[in-house]
Amino acid sequence: MAFLLRLSALIDAITAAIGRSVSWLILVAVLVSAINAVVRKIFDMSSNAWLELQWYLFGAVFLLAAAYTLQKNEHIRIDILSSGWSKRTRDIIDLVLHIIFLVPFSSLMVYLSWSWFWLSYRTGEVSANAGGLIIWPAKSFVLIGFILLTAQAFSEIIKRIGVLTGRIEDPLLDAKSADHAEEVR
Amino acid sequence: MLEFLVENLAPIMFTTVMVMLLLGYPVAFTLAAGGLAFFAIGVEFSHLSPSINLFWPLLQSHPERIYGIMNNDTLLAIPFFTFMGIILERSRMAEDLLDTIGQLFGPIRGGLAYAVVLVGALLGATTGVVAASVMAMGLISMPIMLRYGYNKPFVSGTIAASGTLAQIVPPSLVLIVMADQLGRSVGDMYVGALYPALLIVGTYCAYVFLITLIKPSWAPALPREARTLGGGVTSLAVMILVAVALYYLADMVLFTGISPEWRMVISLALGVGVIFLIALANDTFKLNIISRLAQQVIIVMIPPLALIFLVLGTIFLGIATPTEGGAMGSAGALIMSLLKGRLSFATLKQAVESTTKLSAFVMMILIGSRVFGLTFYGLNGNLWIEHLMLSLPGGEYGFLIVVTIIVFILGCFLDFFEIAFIMVPLLGPVAEKLGIDLVWFGIILGINLQTSFLTPPFGFSLFYLRSIAPAGNWKDPVTGATMSGVKTSDIYKGVFPFIVIQAAMIFVVIAFPQLVMVYKSGEAVIDPSKVNITVPMSSPGGAPGMTLPPLGGAGGNGGIPGLSPPPIGGAPSAGSSQGSGQSGNTLGLPPLNGLGNPPAPANDPAKPAEGAKPAIDLSQPPKFN
Q1: Whole-angstrom Cα distance, residue B499 to residue B503?
Q2: pTM as predicted
Q3: Residues of A in contact with B327 (CB under 8 A)
Q4: Which of A18, B98, B125, B244 is the 20 to 30 A CA-CA neighbour of B410?
């Protein structure tokens, strides 16, 4: 178990580092889009590469940060009923559903997107738009995103077991109260 | 028994997944897992029922469908507007606005309440974050209002309701999601929402006015000693006149040589810019040309107004797409907050991280709902819903009223993202079939969702207000008096009239579609250079072309907006679209997402409706993004 907990901590560190780094791409996307819009109006020029870059960046952000978001427990839940249940019940539900909902879904997506990405990579697929970008990096975000999500799912499973067996403190408890005021909608 | 199960797999799937959602596991993964589980069941049973269109290779379309979500200009607006909102929130714009507008309106009866409504609308048009608006107004205005004897339920209701304006005043995230899910352009959605939003703001003000008439003691004017900025409304009026005069001078005389949109932009910039500079100069050099009140109002109000114009004005004038508007707004917000000296590295880091997490959970719900949708459509769930809703009495209005009630009830329990991603794709095609204009439909749902923030027991706005309003006795730091706290029942009581107003507004918008239909006359002009055409390539490795229609949204949703009701000559009052039952599924007509319908030709009313066949669209139609 100690080994598993170390593995979980390692996964958490990796997904957090990736999640935090890609979040800066939001700023890049904002700047690219704003500058592109202004340049397009004033100098009447534009290129598909710049337009494509915007959604490339956004795709990278939301796919690569999905695992980090899971780690921070920010994937939205419907908690009308569950908020009334005991913490232990909720932990058990999370544990079971991580195993039967999340792991099958995300590992299936890894499996499906691998051949899809590989074909694009091998054939050097390029966007159909004039002056567009190469496509495989965008497709790789889907693959990498779901690999990270699957890894994070295993880390969450380990942590839930750890919490349920009393080996570790729930890492979400202090994070929750600190982040609550930040809630954005 | 087995036969019954097989024939009713779609309703069973729907109910099961809804129950699974109640377990409180993340919505995105629950939807995806439910979709996959029923996919397997459907494939196993497909030999028993010819109507089940599911087979294993279909799964291979999922990566391509996710790629379709990435490759979507409309959804890109979500992170941009979120980022802009967070930056503005951190620059404490709400605080500045409340202080100043409160001073401006304070001397009249109910003035602080008007200020709250107006600031709520302004924040809605800039930050678009309900939590932030409610908390800021609750923290700043509530103590002042209570100090000078405002009625507690009245104060609570006004603040909670004004905060929700962020949901319906463009550029709100709800409208972006709604546009995406209904396959309409965000620009049209924004134009359509404008008048209903203004009407709601106006009605809130009218309610405050009514209260000042029948219960003057609930909303007194500020006493003289509380008006820290002093008087001086005259010089404010003079400054406004100067700005207007400059605008007309520029518009009529100086810049006659350029296109009308740009002339308007430049003239506005000139008029507003000059008085802003005067106010700044007055402040810096203590010139005393204008009153302190006028100076403060101008300095505080102009940057947000300019930002609103930068975002909404350019979108409405057709100069920018909503995505570009969001990006420019974000850049503007960054500059504004930098100039105010309120942009630190920590703020920026927090803003990008919050935006990232919000984007990740929203987009993952969308991915989950697509996985759900693939199975649900394969099981003909869309037909089931259609059958259910079309059998309602009362046609168009019966449908709208039932939908309103359903969403209203769901809104008491669910978050708007969930409703938008799960319910809207199911209801949209039915609305289309009934000949209901989808923008109009989207706005009605939007007001519904806004109301859901106010309805006990799970209205988010009420939670936010509760979290910052003093519950027990508190000591007023200014007067030193001990004040009694705000009870939860005060909040519920105060918000009730606003729920009634909201319900009335929903029915007004249903009864007068003209309020929304103006979007048709003011069709945003799209620059052709922005149009990039993406023709999906047959997905390599996978099963080319075997994509079932994705659940609503961007791709061809089977019930592609074939024929939206015939355009009525571009007249502002397009009237109700009732009776134009022509919308069918014209298979293969490319949806024009994020573009706004080009003027007349695309909506050719003469185009024959190709039967009301449901939608197994075997070739993914080309997309124009």
Answers
A1: 6
A2: 0.79
A3: 29-34, 37, 54
A4: B125
